[in-house]
Design brief:
The protein has two domains: 69 residues, no CATH class; 45 residues. The protein has three helices and four strands. Strands 1-2-3-4 form a four-stranded antiparallel sheet. β2 and β3 form a beta hairpin.
């Protein structure tokens, strides 16, 4: 992957790179020459190349990039993000449970309807005092 890093020639990109680096020293802003997108990259330990974490089709304003980085920052917002995931999962499970309950009730009603059509009753009847045919 080829990365073009801004310098003082492209002042807009340079401002974004400085702002991103001030936000987190592991981050840098540059142009991914393979895709043509402007990206925020994270420097990885060792000899591994930087990894793009956020892309833009044009050079954004510094405050826009910082706002997007802050919104998705798991270090700063881990509790909020976790709560949102848990709430979303609870809601999804409740919706699935509701659909499941509705399907089970529908199946029970259809079964009862078919049994009544055949003259049978789905309800077992027990008579008090019945000695079982004696």
């Amino acid at each position: 992957m080829n990365i073009w890093l801004p310098n003082s020639v492209n002042y807009d990109a340079y401002k974004v790179d400085r702002a991103v680096n001030e936000y987190d020293e592991r981050l840098m802003f540059g142009r991914n020459e393979d895709t043509g997108d402007w990206c925020v990259f994270i420097r990885l330990p060792g000899d591994r190349p930087p990894y793009p974490v956020m892309g833009f089709q044009h050079i954004p304003e510094s405050h826009e990039v910082i706002a997007r980085l802050s919104e998705g920052d798991t270090r700063k917002h881990s509790e909020r993000i976790y709560r949102e995931i848990v709430e979303s999962e609870k809601k999804r499970r409740a919706e699935l449970e509701y659909v499941s309950d509705q399907a089970a009730a529908d199946a029970a009603e259809r079964t009862e309807h078919m049994m009544r059509k055949r003259g049978a009753s789905p309800v077992i009847k027990v008579f008090v005092g019945d000695k079982g045919g004696e």
